[in-house]
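[step 3/7] inverse_fold.run input=structure_tokens len=557
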């Protein structure tokens, strides 16, 4: 008895994949078109904007002197090392914001290609085109494809793992089992959240074996070997992962908010649009109409057949596999956050979006297949295709426009403000940060934009253990994090002619700039009190988006 789905259940093979009139050349043309579209959306205006605190931290880890330091730095933070190892070699070829972001852009584009390959293997080429188009246009995907963190690498590895496991079960090839095993190990070393992908695939596989009632023991043996290899390979990092989880429980990442039903709602809306703007009237109606229509189709596809029905074609087990990988990580992350400590954030779950889009695409195709009248005559088929494309564009384009054009979705202009200070800086000046989130990006810009010929004369505080030591011991600019030294500016700190105070504020919130100005006023109030009426403290402000630079010149002593 053959254990593979392809031979045992030949009806699971899509008609489009077995008797397709589309040539391989046209197929490659479709993939090339998707790549061009994905790159265009992800590269658009990529050079503007600054690295933020956590993205600068990515470069800090990657800029370690060797791989051992990358492992050590990742272990000290809520990170796993694989992404930073790849970035470590990537930045050896370039050392700029644009080059760092480009790595994530390429990973995000690879996710689109892998979405096409996975959907085509499981269902049909039509599903593959729609699923990859949704992934390409998704503002959720585009946003994190321009974000130098491990999220898109995790999304790519999750898709490769899904495809490899499905192919291994369907065809029984050793090569597929090997790919699945290797990718699972790499995923676990990419981000702690990848463990939810591994669990979801275990749930899928055990359900499959259970429903088939032991008919395919040949499937069970290679799967057990694969899981044993994964476990043995991951053992060295298990203790680190455990300490990272418990670190969150102790409040190390207190910015992660408690969960509620609104958390699930936010995640679902992020799957459709990563932005939160109130769209213009003419854009919001088709956007929400498209979301509700495709949600209805998705639910219809989900509940039109019993969940635990035996495999009998129409791609049911393919759908069940994708539902497992889409729902299980959400359920696990939400449950842990609800019952224990909060670990929830939608950015960590971006890897469920591509499987979700494949399910949406298949739901659209299923509607057409289940209502034959939509495919006959040709004009109705064309009308259906245009309507489906219109829904996708209505859901995708307004969020993308907002993502590119609304300043609320831009990071503070840290690079611009640093460049300005650099043009004004004189040897002996001091740069002080009143907020820790501007300090780390400034260290990066001192490395990437600072004068290479100038001899380093200052040691700066390495306030995070994961920072590479050479960032702190070879500083061409004298910088400090104010909260690490004192609650205010003292005369001793004004030993130089000037102090540059970097005042970071949340430019998305009304009144935040005023609060930053009040904080600066509190820091320098003692200086004002010590000045006589004839002595004036010279204070000027230079404004950038989300950043105010306060120039303090000593006027009284």
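[step 3/7] decode complete -> sequence:
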């Amino acid at each position: 008895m053959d254990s593979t789905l392809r031979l045992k259940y030949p009806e699971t093979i899509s008609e489009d994949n077995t008797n397709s009139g589309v040539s391989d050349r046209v197929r490659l043309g479709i993939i090339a078109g998707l790549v061009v579209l994905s790159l265009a959306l992800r590269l658009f205006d990529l050079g503007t904007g600054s690295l933020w605190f956590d993205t600068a931290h990515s470069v800090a880890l990657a800029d370690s002197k060797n791989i051992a330091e990358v492992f050590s730095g990742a272990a000290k933070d809520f990170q796993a090392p694989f992404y930073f190892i790849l970035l470590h070699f990537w930045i050896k070829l370039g050392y700029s914001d644009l080059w760092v972001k480009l790595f994530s852009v390429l990973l995000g584009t690879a996710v689109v290609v892998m979405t096409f390959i996975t959907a085509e293997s499981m269902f049909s080429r039509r599903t593959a085109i729609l699923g990859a188009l949704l992934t390409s246009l998704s503002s959720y995907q585009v946003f994190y494809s321009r974000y130098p963190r491990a999220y898109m690498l995790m999304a790519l590895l999750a898709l490769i793992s899904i495809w490899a496991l499905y192919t291994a079960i369907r065809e029984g090839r050793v090569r597929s089992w090997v790919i699945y095993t290797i990718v699972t190990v790499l995923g676990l070393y990419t981000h702690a959240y990848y463990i939810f992908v591994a669990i979801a695939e275990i749930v899928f596989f055990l359900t499959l074996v259970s429903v088939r009632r032991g008919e395919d023991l040949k499937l069970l043996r290679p799967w057990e070997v694969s899981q044993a290899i994964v476990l043995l390979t991951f053992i060295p990092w298990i203790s680190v992962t455990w300490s990272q989880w418990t670190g969150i429980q102790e409040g190390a990442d207190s910015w992660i908010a408690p969960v509620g039903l609104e958390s699930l709602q936010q995640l679902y809306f992020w799957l459709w649009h990563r932005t939160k703007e109130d769209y213009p009237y003419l854009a919001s109606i088709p956007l929400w109409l498209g979301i509700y229509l495709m949600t209805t189709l998705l639910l219809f596809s989900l509940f039109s057949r019993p969940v635990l029905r035996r495999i009998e074609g129409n791609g049911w087990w393919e759908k069940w596999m994708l539902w497992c990988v889409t729902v299980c990580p959400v359920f696990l992350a939400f449950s842990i956050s609800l019952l224990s400590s909060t670990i929830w954030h939608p950015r960590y779950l971006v890897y469920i979006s591509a499987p979700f889009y494949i399910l949406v695409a298949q739901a659209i195709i299923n509607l057409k297949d289940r209502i034959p009248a939509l495919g006959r005559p040709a004009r109705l088929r064309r009308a259906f295709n245009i309507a489906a494309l219109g829904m996708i564009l209505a859901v995708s384009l307004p969020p993308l426009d907002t993502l590119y054009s609304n300043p609320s979705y831009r990071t503070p202009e840290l690079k611009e403000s640093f460049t300005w200070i650099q043009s004004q800086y004189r040897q002996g000046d001091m740069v002080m940060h009143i907020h820790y989130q501007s300090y780390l990006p400034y260290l990066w810009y001192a490395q990437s934009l600072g004068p290479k010929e100038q001899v380093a004369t200052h040691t700066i505080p390495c306030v995070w253990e994961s920072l590479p030591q050479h960032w702190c011991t070879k500083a061409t600019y004298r910088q400090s994090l104010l909260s690490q030294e004192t609650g205010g500016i003292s005369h001793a700190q004004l030993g130089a002619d000037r102090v540059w105070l970097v005042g970071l504020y949340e430019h998305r919130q009304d009144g935040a700039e005023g609060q930053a100005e009040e904080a600066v006023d509190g820091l320098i109030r003692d200086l004002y009190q010590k000045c006589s009426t004839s002595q004036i403290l010279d204070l000027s402000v230079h404004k950038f988006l989300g950043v105010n630079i306060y120039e303090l010149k000593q006027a009284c002593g």
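[step 4/7] annotate
Confidence is low (pLDDT under 50) at residues 1-21, 306-313.
Residues 414-553 form one domain.
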